[in-house]
Amino acid sequence: MDQELNGGQERPYVTAKASKHGGGRKTLSTKKRYIINALLFVAMLAIGQGLIDGDFISRYQTTVIEQIGIYIIMAVSLNVATGYLGQLPLGHAGFMSVGGYSCAIFIIRMMPVFDLNMRSFVTGEPMAVVLFVVGVLFGGLMAGLSGLIIGIPALRLKGDYLAIITLGFAEIIRVVMLNIDGVVGFELTGGAKGLTGIPSYTNFLNTFIVVGIVLFLIHTMMKSRHGRAILAIRDNEIAAEATGVNTTYYKTLAFVVSAFFAGVGGALYAGCIGVMAPAKFGFMKSIEILVMVVLGGMGSMLGSVLSATVLTILPEALRAFADYRMVVYAVVLILVMIFRPQGLLGTYDFSMGDFLEKLINGELFRGKSKQKSEEVEANA
Amino acid sequence: MTFLTQVLNGLQLGSIYALVALGYTMVYGIILLLNFAHGDIIMVGAYISWIVMAQLGMSPVLAIILSVVGCTVLGVLIDKVAYAPLRNAPRLSVLITAIGVSYFLENGAQLVFGADAKVVPTYFNLPNPQVGGATFNGVAILTVVVTAVSTIILTLLVQKTKFGKAMRAVSEDMGAARLMGINVNNTISFTFAVGSALAGIGAVLYSMAYTQATPTMGIMLGTKAFVAAVLGGIGSIPGAVIGGLLVGFAEVFVSAMGFSVWRDAVVFLLLIIVLIVKPTGILGRTMNEKV
C-alpha cells in the first residue's frame, strides 16, 4: 500500500506539458495536486492504522511493513546519489549504521534525563514523541555529516574510485563501531555483541509519516532548480559545468542528502530491530540496497519504492528458499544489467496528478501514438 | 618476534596483495573496469585446492596446477558471459554487473560448500631457515620469491611480446587498436586470463599462509588488493607491486604495535589520504578527459 501513496506524490521530471499550449484541456493546479496527494496519504495512513488497531494485521506483519518503509527510505536515498547524480557509492550501509547508532545512543542516553522508560515510546508520551523526532533528526544529521566528510575527497574522484573509497569508508565506520568502546573508555556502541536496550520507538504510524516526508522532500528537491542541476551533472558533467552549474557543490549536496536520509532510515531501523550490531552493516547490506535501486530503475522513485517493497516481502514470504535467495539476486542483477541496463522501470515515474488529468480529459484509454503526436505539436 | 620477522611478514602479505593487485590493474588498464569478482576468483582457487587435496586426496602439485588453471578459465568465462555483452554499455552498468558476479560467486560458494571455513591442507613442508639466530618462515620466503618471479615474467610479457604490445595498444585506444588490425576481444580475454592466473597463484600462496577457505574470503582480500592497486596508481605494474607491499607493511606493523583491530581501518585511511593528496596514485599517470 505504500507504493500507491508514493506514486501519488511523484511526477516525471518533464516540464514541457501539452496542457500549457493545448486549447480545451482541463488541468489541475499544483496546489490541487498536492491537496489530492496529501488526502490520499492521510487516507492510507488511517486505513493502515485502522487495520493494525483492529488486529487485521499481526504484530509480525506490522514489523515487516515497518521494514518495508525503512528499505524504501534506504533505496530512495541511495537513488539520489546513484540514479539522479549518476555516481556509485558502495557505502550506504555505513551511513545507515551511523544514523542508527547515533539515534539509538542519543535516545538511550536521554531517556533518564526526561524520566522516560521503555514503555513510554509504545504508549506515545508527548516527551517520547519529541525525543523520537529529535533522535531521528540527530541520526540523519550525523550520517549527513559523515557524508560530507567522505563526500569532499571522494567526489573529486570518478566512478570506480568513488565506489571503492565509499566502500572503504563504510568499512572504517564498521571497524570504529566495533572498537570505539576501548578508545573512549566506557560502553558506547557495545562492540561486537551489539547495542542493546534500544526502546522500540519505531511503529507503523511514525514510519509511514517519515517515509511520506522523505519521499516528499526528495521529490520536491529533484523538481527544483537544485534537482535539475543534479540531473544535468548526471547527463553530462562537463556540459553542466560549462553551463555554469557548480558541479562540486551539487555533487556534494546530493551526496550529503543521500547520506542524511540513509541516516534517517538507519535511525528507524534501530528502533524496529531493537539491537544494533556492526556486522549487520557490512558490504552485503550496501549491495542489497543497491540491488533495490538498480532493479527498480535508476532515477525512478516509483521503481525504488516498488523494488524495496517486493525485495523486502519476498524473502519473508519465501523463507524456505532463503539459501537460494542471494544467488538468485545475483543472477537477476546480472541479467537486468545485460538486457535492461536502465532497470525495470527506467526513469519512468507515476504521477497521480497527471493520471487524474488524463482521467478527467478522457485520455486514459486513447492510443499512445495519438497522444505523442499531440505533444509534438504542442511543443513545436 | 624480531623486527626482521615482521619485515618478512609484511613482505609476505604485501606480495599476496601485489599479485592480486596486478590482476586488478591489468583488467582496469585495458577496459577501465573495476573487476569486483577478482577477489572471489581467489576464493574459488582456494576451494579448488581444498577439493583436490582434502577431498580427492591428490598431490599438492596437481592442486596448484588445477587452482591456477581453474582460476584462469573462470576469469575468461566471467568476461565472456557477463562483461563482453556490455562492451559498449555505460561504465556504471558494467560495474554493477561485476558486483553481481562477485555476489554470485560468494553466495554460490556458500550454497555449495557451506558458510563454515574449510581447512586447506599443507602443500609442502618447507624448511624454516635460520640466519643469525632468527628463524624465517619458509612459506613467506617462497611467497616473496614467487611474486618477484611472476612480476618479472609479467613485465616481460607486457613489454616484449606481441600480445603485450596488443594489450598496451588496446589500453591506450581501443578503437584505434581495432583499426590497426588487433583482435580486441581476444586481447581482452588474454588480459583476463593473465590476471586470473595471477589470482590463482595468489590463491595458492594465500592458502599456504592462512590454510583456510571461506566463501567471503575474497571480499576483504580483493578490496585491499584493489586499494593497493589504486595506491600504486592503477594501470601501472610497478605501482601495483609498490601498493601491495605498502598495504601489507601497513597491516603488519599496525598489528605488531598492538592495534590489530584497527588494521582494516588504517588501510582504508591510507587509501583516502593518498587519493586526496594524489588522486592518480603514487605512480599513476594523469588522464585528460576528452570531450
TrEMBL record, chain A:
Top-level taxon of the source organism: Bacteria
GO terms for MF: branched-chain amino acid transmembrane transporter activity
Coiled coil regions in record: none
The keyword Amino-acid biosynthesis is annotated on this UniProt entry: no
Primary localisation category: membrane
Membrane topology type: Multi-pass membrane protein
InterPro entries on file: ABC_transp_permease, LivM-like
Keywords: Cell membrane, Membrane, Transmembrane, Transmembrane helix
Transmembrane segments: 34-52, 64-86, 93-114, 126-149, 161-180, 200-218, 253-277, 289-314, 326-345
Annotated localization: Cell membrane
Record GO cellular component, one term: plasma membrane
PANTHER family: HIGH-AFFINITY BRANCHED-CHAIN AMINO ACID TRANSPORT PROTEIN BRAE, HIGH-AFFINITY BRANCHED-CHAIN AMINO ACID TRANSPORT SYSTEM PERMEASE
Protein's name according to its UniProt entry: Branched-chain amino acid ABC transporter permease
Protein species of origin: Olsenella porci
Automatic annotation (TrEMBL), chain B:
GO cellular component, as recorded: plasma membrane
One Pfam family cited in the UniProt record for this chain: BPD_transp_2
Keywords: Amino-acid transport, Cell inner membrane, Cell membrane, Membrane, Transmembrane, Transmembrane helix, Transport
GO biological process terms, semicolon-separated: D-alanine transmembrane transport; L-alanine transport; L-isoleucine import across plasma membrane
Segments traversing the membrane: 15-34, 64-82, 94-115, 135-158, 188-206, 226-254, 266-284
Subcellular location per the Swiss-Prot or TrEMBL entry: Cell membrane
Stretches of the chain forming a coiled coil according to its record: none
Highest taxon listed in the record's lineage: Bacteria
Membrane association type: Multi-pass membrane protein
Coarse class of the protein's main subcellular location: membrane
Gene Ontology terms for molecular function: L-isoleucine transmembrane transporter activity; L-leucine transmembrane transporter activity; L-phenylalanine transmembrane transporter activity; L-valine transmembrane transporter activity
Family assignment from sequence similarity: Belongs to the binding-protein-dependent transport system permease family. LivHM subfamily.
The protein, known as: Branched-chain amino acid ABC transporter permease
